[in-house]
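In response to reviewer comment 3 from the previous cycle, which asked for concrete evidence that the modeling workflow produces usable outputs, we include below a single protein chain processed end to end. The sequence was submitted unchanged, and the resulting structure tokens are shown without manual editing.
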Amino acid sequence: MAGLSLLRPASGNTYLQLSQDTMVDMVKLGNTGLTVSRIAMGTGTKATNGRDSAQMRVAGLEGFKKQAHHAYERGIRFFDTAETYGSMPYVGESIKTLPRENITILTKMWTQTRNNEPVTSIDDALDRYRQQLQTDYIDILLMHCLQRGDWPVTCKPYMDLFSKAKQAGILKKIGISSHNIDALREASTNPWVDVIMVRVNPFGTNMDGTPDEVKAILATAKANGKGIIGMKIYGEGLHVSDEEREQTYRYAIKEEVVHSMTLGHESIEQMDDAIERVMRIVS
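The workflow returned the following structure tokens.
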């Protein structure tokens, strides 16, 4: 097989770099009408205070752009970012020479209210996001890190303005990033939600509930046409051995828990390893 080599990083894990011909496949994101790559390039690993995610810190802008273009060449056409990661300008610089119609951009907004009014000016934020991403529209915007089941009440001002931006064509699809089982359960049936990003791994590490609990709620969400994107696939970096990576990919794919998954890697070698393993399991 072309390009066969073994790469061993300092952590002691072995990463396989196999055929560079293997391409990530495209999947339907529920009933949203979007088709996305099965893997999204995550850009927020260990991000703090809106800056210094691992992808930015380790690679710098030029290294980040190199990884993004490598991802695109291998079929990854889905980029996951957020204001709290600080990575939107990096994504914008990376994709500006790529065909926009082939790319899906997902970003997230931190939502909170004061006296039932948004703390953030949403119109200003969306203008800033699009400027940083160098795009006229955003494919998916999520309310970030929701931790309460009553979010349809507490976040209603944001929801209304997201809906308005969607009607105007600034946003294509909207939804939530869940960090609480009640928030997830509400999203699984709420008609406002197009897309759910959810913590998923077979170990139950840093998840909203047990794997069985989350899987059951996601089955309901899928039945309601929601697009499901898995995150924290490695349990926030706690399950990265060869065996654990295989196990978590198999869980997400073979048990059809999610449609797509966002994976944050700090090198092209790690990215290639994930692509090879995921596509071997898919095929």
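Residues 54-73 form the longest helix (20 residues). We consider this sufficient to address the reviewer's concern, and the full set will be provided in the supplementary archive.
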